[in-house]
Amino acid sequence: MTPHPDPTSRADRAASFTRGADVYARVRPGYPAEAVSWLLEGTTGPVLDLAAGTGLLTRRLVELGADVVAVDPAAAMLEELSAALPGVDTRTGTAERIPLADAGVGAVVVGQAWHWFDPPRAAAEIARVLRPGGTLGVLTNDRDERVDWVARFGEILHEGDSLAPDSAQSAAPPALDESFGPAERFEHSWHHHLPTAELGPLAASRSYALTLSPEDREHLVQRVEDLAATHADLSGTTEVALPYVTTAYRARRR
If DSSP codes are grouped into helix, strand and coil, which group holds residue 152? Predict the structure, then answer.
């Protein structure tokens, strides 16, 4: 019998995204053009979307005209990406073992995944595949919990989650070695519009929820549904605008 995943295990949490890839693609937020355009300023050549998942960042890169190679360890996630973006080159791999040649890309971008990497090994591999002067860009989306219902939503998501980063951690610059110059920072506020009924599936798409028992995951989703039914800003609505702050860092390959 396959052991149940452990919500306190980073390895189990990282592997959890192989389940429910279709829901992930449907409900997770993408990335604002303003932040992605800033990351790509001054870059030429192919762009590697590292830990591309279902292609939420890949879509924006393609819209901006980039020639994208998408790499992710989960075949199920890449299948969702290929279904939406059949022209994108997809390859199975990790940040620590990137299946690309030396100095082959002009930029490497990472959306909402740096915290899953082994930073020293990932930085060395990214430096290997980047051309001199190429760009590493790292993006994170954080819910803007200055809004009351969003703060309550976050409390439900993180209750009992020993691995949940706080907003300061998630928005911190990536740890890089001497192969890179200093990191620059960019921030942009925006809204992710989704049906109110999708708040439950959005909560269930997080790695913590995916590693819970079915009973505990159902309880978490029920609490989110109760919030949507009772909070003054959500009750009776069919669509919500979930506020996010996207933080982007870019550093040039020396």
Answer: helix
CA distances 135 to 38, 49, 235, Å, are 11, 12, 44
CB 110 within 8 A of CB 48: no
Q: Which of 23, 240, 247 is nearest to 153 (CA)?
A: 240
Q: Are 66 and 47 in contact (CB under 8 A)?
A: yes
Q: What is the mean pLDDT of the chain?
A: 93
Q: What is the sign of the dihedral through the CA atoms of 145, 147, 148 and 153?
A: negative
Q: Report residue 212 as tokens.
A: 């819970």
pLDDT digits (tens, 9 = 90+) for 20-65: 788 999 999 999 999 999 999 999 999 999 999 999 999 999 999 9
Contacts of 54 (CB under 8 A, 6+ apart): 21, 24, 25, 28, 77, 80, 81, 84
